TrEMBL record:
Gene3D superfamilies: 3.10.50.10, Glycosidases
PANTHER family from the UniProt entry: CHITINASE, GLYCOSYL HYDROLASE FAMILY PROTEIN WITH CHITINASE INSERTION DOMAIN-CONTAINING PROTEIN
A GO biological-process term: chitin catabolic process
Superkingdom to which the source organism belongs: Eukaryota
UniProt domain GH18: residue ranges: 28-368
Stated name of the protein: GH18 domain-containing protein
Length: 368
């Protein structure tokens, strides 16, 4: 009897320690997006490497201003949480709405009136609850006028109130609320609604990537530079600008890519950063997942370079040049997050990783 009691106490103590450790761990965000467009199986995600996963993307119906999921994605979205919890029962999942291929004008229209904002908010809560998500994530790319920025603030404030009220009325835990934003001063040099963001969001996913690419840059460049001396085109500049605007560092989550961009060099002998190019290489847009990049390196015996000044990797073979993040830059970026007191990091997207190399490097660098 005494042995059974000791065994029970031993198990209970270790379970409590585990629970406390996990609860403390939820004060950080070690996250990644899963993209339905990647066709990467949800069941293949190693969710033990993350605290949060974003399911991307739900859509905005421009006629009803409601959040919807396409029929092609309903089965995967509706079982997303239970599937990733098979490997990590404590993972938190968020339904991400919008994305780069969505219509910015549809979001602007929805956010312009109180009744259409309410339709959006109410439908987002309903679908999150019915599909078993723990939160919601807004990816409106991007508000492009002062009026749209103001309406974004109204949307966020009303969304937060609705989430709090829904939790109070149902007894459920409040749904998390995040949003993916660029630098505080984005391409349109507009300021985001800082007070609404501070009051309403649990955190910001800072998209610190796509700084250089063959579709908009005629020279090679670090697609996701952490530093870029003499310019404002870097992750550090973005993080610093958010903090200077009044957002606490512990509400910021730094984003990095599990993909890169390939350029065609004008001169094979000029193969550093900012070398002249003649357009994309390998794919029509030059975009390549990390696994594809590693395959290219192996197949072409490409030369690999890590530049610690900008915190970015690149490789080249002949006239093909690829900028990307490898384990060196991912490790340095996660260390930066910890040093700056950020809430954590996220990656786009899990399907582009190669054998969980980058995901594992990020998780191990952050530590327990």
């Amino acid at each position: 009897m005494a042995a059974k009691l000791l065994s029970f106490l031993f198990f209970s103590f270790h379970f409590l320690v585990f629970q406390l450790h996990f609860s403390a761990g939820q004060d950080v965000v070690r996250a990644a997006y899963w993209s339905a467009g990647s066709e990467f199986p949800v069941s293949d995600i190693d969710s033990t490497l993350f605290t949060h996963l974003f399911c991307a993307f739900a859509d905005l119906d421009s006629q009803t201003n409601q959040v919807t999921v396409s029929s092609a994605n309903q089965a995967r979205f509706s079982t997303f949480t239970e599937t990733v919890q098979l490997k990590n029962p404590y993972i938190k999942t968020l339904l991400s709405i919008g994305g780069g291929s969505s219509s910015a004008s549809d979001f602007a229209s929805m956010a312009s009136q109180a009744n259409t904002r309410k339709s959006f908010i109410d439908s987002s809560i309903n679908i999150a609850r019915s599909y078993g998500f723990h939160g919601l994530d807004l990816d409106w790319e991007y508000p492009s006028t002062p009026t749209e920025m103001n309406n974004l603030g109204l949307l966020l404030n009303e969304w937060r109130v609705a989430l709090v009220n829904e939790a109070a009325n149902t007894g459920n835990s409040r749904l998390l609320l995040s949003a993916a934003f660029f630098r505080n001063s984005d391409y349109y040099t507009l300021d985001y609604p800082i007070q609404a963001i501070q009051n309403s969001l649990d955190w910001i996913n800072v998209m610190a990537y796509d700084f250089y690419g063959p579709g908009w840059s005629t020279v090679t460049g670090p697609p996701a530079a952490l530093y870029n001396p003499g310019t404002q085109v870097s992750g550090d500049y973005g993080i610093t600008s958010w903090i200077q605007s009044g957002i606490p560092s512990n509400k910021l989550v730094l984003g990095f890519p599990f993909y890169g961009y390939a350029w065609q060099l004008v001169d094979a002998n000029n193969h550093g950063f900012f070398a002249p190019t003649s357009g994309p290489a390998i794919t029509p847009n030059g975009d390549l997942g990390y696994g594809q990049i590693k395959d290219f390196i192996s197949a072409n015996s490409a030369t690999e370079v890590y530049n610690a000044t900008v915190v970015s990797n690149y490789c080249y073979a002949g006239t093909t040049w690829i900028g990307f993040d490898d384990t060196e830059s991912i490790t340095a970026k996660v260390s930066y997050c910890k040093q700056k007191g950020l809430l954590g990091y996220f990656a786009w997207h899990v399907g582009a990783d190669d054998g969980w190399t980058l995901s594992r490097a990020a998780s191990e660098t952050w530590g327990s």
